[in-house]
Amino acid sequence: MICFHEHVFVFLVLVAELYLHAFTETKLVVDTSRGETLHIKLDITFPALACSILSVDAMDISGGQHLDVKHDIIKNRLDEHGNVIESRPDGIGATKAADDCCNSCEDVRERYRKKSWSLSNPDLIDQCKREGFLQKVKDKEGEGCNIYVSLEVNRVAGKFHFAPGKSFPQSNAHLLYFLAFQKDSFNLSHKINRLAFGDYCPGVVNPLDSAQWTQKQPSGMYQYDKGWFSV
Predict the structure, then answer these.
(1) For the chain, percent of residues with pLDDT exceeding 90
(2) What residue spans define the domains of the chain?
(3) By CB count within 10 A, which of 15, 25, 73, 152 is most buried?
């Protein structure tokens, strides 16, 4: 009788093992969504870098580039205490005149960037001198900047930069030029308030939300590596 019970028990254990055992299956699938785009939303604060000299660039391995992004971006000037200086943010959906003329200092700077020319002294340009561009930038020294960016990018590996100065491509390289009077060093300390990829999903925690970095040297660079996977 005991032997019979033992056989029944062993049989039940074997059946349970059969149903609880997990099988691993490996598959290699071609990603057919390469041509699709990905929506990125980023809210970041630079407490010691003025909005007037801060540019945003995005690029990817397929060759797509968004240099010195001005569309779908909001810049809020901050004082030394982190308070918003003005209620009207800079650079919301900036558009260009239909005649494509260089009527303003910003138009000239953009034209120089597209030509991959360096504009080190805007005071030599009539439009910039008339607008008092250099003095306006100097007056904003010591300010901070909060940036909200909404970008539609190719769904491939890529990167985006926040840097002081203007960017332009040259000989397959990504270069920055600075204004003649700008300081030799910048404080790139920052806090990422929010970084989200794709459509909003309730309950999802973004790994870089609230991440911050404090620059302790006169100059510096900080890089984040992040992978994104669709499920």
Answers:
(1) 7
(2) 36-213
(3) 73
